[in-house]
Fold:
Amino acid sequence: MTTESIRTLLNDAFSPSVLEIIDNSAAHAGHAGARSGGGHYHVTIVADAFEGKSSVQRHQLVYKALGDLMKQEIHALGINALSPSEESKGNL
Structure:
């Protein structure tokens, strides 16, 4: 359910050309965040919105798009956010 929520929110916010979401939650079973229901995810996203932005700014945009999911449903989130020009250079 959370993976689909992440997908929906990021698609709505960025209309990305690439969006990959990996759920690593099972590998963290028993972890404090997992016990409270928060999952571990990794997102690779390519979108025009990241052009000219720093890594910190890109992460802030993703966090903002995910909103309340970051409070409970997501305990840890790895982000690989690229602009289309970076993707074309093979940075995926």
